Amino acid sequence: MTDKPDAVHIIHIAAPAQKVWDALTSSELSPRYFFGNRFEFGPRGGDFRVIQPDGQINSEGKVLVRDDPRVLRVSWDVVIFPDMRADKPGEVEFRLEDLGGVVRLTVSEYDRPPGAVKYEDSAREGWSLILSGIKSILETGEPMPQVQPKGPQ
Amino acid sequence: MDTDAVFRALADESRRALLDRLFERNGQTLGELTKGMAMSRQAVSKHLAVLEAANLVAIVWRGRVKLHFLNPVPIAEIADRWIGKFERPRVDALLALKRELETDYD
User: What is the pTM of this model?
Assistant: First the structure.
């Protein structure tokens, strides 16, 4: 594990930290902003999974840090793409900071696997869409119109 | 998102050049970003502060080293505002066509 992220995404959301945390960790809400995929976060030391709408496991890992409602860090192993199966898992950290009525949500990616390079553009766009999706749900109560990220080029 | 701050930050050639540099290689220090820019360290630092205030640049401290990351979220929010669900694939197709045609002449 290195302490230098490969990418950082930040969004400000006008909602209480607990609501942002609940939206992020909820299996029911996450498909509304995560292109139909479902986040599953266990307790610290427990399992982390991304389940696709078709029921297949997209990614899996362990919950490395969990400090409700401030920090959530997971190891993230993309298992759905055959060409990434040999890669070591990366890590993703979600950090919530209460700025007084506004929460700064920061997603940092560490040790991004080599196979993910060709998915970098879609990851970049993916996190942007996911974060603005969470913001939209919390601030307006409505998800954004569904937009799919571009696939690898 | 402070839309005015984002557009003000983007309305400057040097600041766009700094974002280009971070797009190519994310997580650079002020020193690294100053190299190759025809301006002083102080000037680059001021431009980075404007980008940071607009949330276009995210700061990560690693010990005493300050690293700058491109935060594309505000730009994605601007795109989402005016590019609808159904236009998006067409816009992407036009951009891909442009890229294809223009790379031959680089």
Answer: 0.84
